[in-house]
Amino acid sequence: MNMFADLHLAPEALAVHAPVLLVLAPFMMSTASVFAPNGRFAWGMALLTSAFTVWMSLVLASDVAREGVISYHMGGWAPPLGIEFRADGLNVLIVILISFMALMSALFAQPAVAREIRTEKQPLFYTAFQICLAGLMGMALTGDAFNLFVFLEISSIATYVLVGLGATRDRRALTAAFNYLIMGTIGASFFVIGVGFLYAATGTLNMADIAERLNGLDDSRVVQAGFGFIVVGLGLKAAMFPLHQWLPNAYAYAPSFVTVFLSATATKAAFYALARFIFTVYDPNWDFVVAAMNYVLAPAACLAILFCSFQAIFQLDVRRVLAYSSVAQVGYMLLGLSVGTVAGLSAGMFHLANHALMKGALFMAVGAVALHSNVWRVCDFKGAAKTAPLTIAGFTVAAFSLMGTPLTVGFLSKLRLYDAVVINGWWWAAVVIATSSILAFFYVGRLLQAAYLMKPDEGAPEIKEAPMVILFALWVLAGLNIYFFFDSSLPLGLAEAGAEAVLGASAGGVQ
C-alpha cells in the first residue's frame, strides 16, 4: 500500500469523513433518485455516485497507508459504546473494488437498463442500485458486528428487488428473486444468531472489543456455536459450496447490469466479512477454528472448484456457465483463506480482486451481445466474433484470464494460490487447482469455439457490436486483466497488506 502513502486526493476536512461518506453518499443520492424525472437522469445520478465512491475509496486508502488503521466514531462516541467505522489493510481492497466495479457497471447500465427495464421503473431501479452499493460499503467498513448484519440486509433487500426487475425480460427472474430471498434470509438469520452468541459471551458488539474479550474463551461452547452460525450464514451469502444454489438462477435471469455488478461485488463483500471474523474477531490459531478451516472450509472449497467447474461444462445458457464458474472461483478464494497463512490469505484476496475484473468483463460482454439480439444460449454465439469483433475480443481476454492463461492476471493469482497450498503441504489441493484449469478450458472453450469457429444457424438473430460506452467499460476491465500481469503491484500489494494486517507476517512466509 506504499503507493498510496504520498497521495493527498482531498482536503483534510473532507478526507477525515471518507469512511462515512462512502456509505452516506449512495444513501442520500438514492433518496434523490426516486424523484428523478426519467431513467437517463437517474442513471447520471448513479454514475456520479459511483465516481464519488471511487474518489473517496482512494482517499481512504491513502489515509490507511499513512496511519495503518482508521477509526471513525459516529456522533463522537468512542467505541465500544459508540458505533465505529473502521478501515485497515484488510478492507481497503474491498472498498476500492466495490466502488470501481460500481462505476464500470454504471457505465454499462445506460444502454442495458434502457432496453431491459420499463421506462417508468428506471428511476426506482437506480435507487435500488445505490441502496445496494451503500449496503455493500457499510459491510466493508463497519466495525460493529450487528451493524454488519444491518448493512448485509440492506444490500440483500435491494438485490432481491434488482433481480426481480428482470421479470420484464424473463418471468423466471421472479422465481430466482424469491429463492434468493429465502436463502438470503436463512443466511442472515444464521449470522445474527451467531452474533447473538458472541454478545452473550462477551457483552459487546464492537468487533475489536469482541476480539479482546474472547481471549481465554476458546473452550466456550457458546463461542464455538457462534462461530459455526457465522460461518454458515456468511458462507451462504458468499455462495460457498454447497450453499450456492441461489446463485445460478439469480445471475441467469437478473437484468444484465445487475449480473455484472453482483458477480463482481456481492459475494466478495460476504467473503471479506467471513475473513474478518475468522482472522480478526476469532483467533485463527484456536483448535476449533483450525479444524473448521482444515476439515470443513478446505474440502468445501475443493468440491466447489471441481463440481461446479464440471457442471459449467454442460450448461446450455451462457449466463449459467459463468454462474457455476463463479461458484468455482469462490472455491479458490475460500481455499486460500482455509490455508490460514499470510501466503494463502493474500493469494485468496488477490484472486478475489482478479475474479471481479474477469467475471465483470465476461458478463458485460455477454450482456452486450444480447443487447440487440436477445440471445443467451451457447449455440447462439456462433459467428459472433465476425459481427462483434471488439466485444468478443474483450470476452476472450477475460476468458483466458479465467482459465489462468499466462500473460493474464488470472495466471498470477492461481500460481500464488498453488504455491501457498504446496508450502502448506496440501498436495491434494494443488492437484485440484491444476485439474480445475483443465475443466475451465473446456467450458470456456465451448464459448470461444462457437464465437470464432462456427457459422451462425440460418435465421439466427444477428449479433451486433456493443455501444461505445459498453466497449469502453469492457475494455477497461479486459485491459486490466492484461496490465496487472505485467505490474500487479496494486491488487497484489493491497492483498498482501490485508493479509499482513490480520496475520502480522511477511506475505512471502507462512504464519
Structure description:
- With 511 residues, the chain is mainly alpha-helical.
- It has a domain at 323-511.
- 75% of the residues lie in helices and 2% in strands.
- It contains 21 helices and 2 strands.
- The chain has helices at residues 2-5, 12-15, 18-33, 39-67, 89-116, 122-141, 145-164, 172-202, 207-213, 221-237, 247-253, 256-281, 287-313, 318-339, 342-373, 384-387, 389-403, 409-423, 427-453, 468-486, 489-503, and strands at residues 70-73, 84-87.
- The chain has a two-stranded antiparallel ribbon with strand order 1-2.
- Helix 8 packs antiparallel against helix 10 (221-237).
- The longest helix has 32 residues, at 342-373.
- The chain is globular.
- Residues 505-511 have low confidence and may be disordered.
Q: Distance N terminus to C terminus?
A: 20 Å
Shape: globular
Query: Topology as H/E string?
Result: HHHHEEHHHHHHHHHHHHHHHHH
- Overall pLDDT: 89
The rounded Rg comes to 21 Å
Could you give the order of strands across the largest sheet? 1-2
Q: Count of DSSP helices? A: 21
Q: Give the total of beta strands.
A: 2
Give the low-pLDDT segments.
505-511
Structural class: mainly alpha
Share of residues in strands: under 5%
Helix content: over 70%
**Strand count, sense and closure of the main sheet?**
2 strands, antiparallel
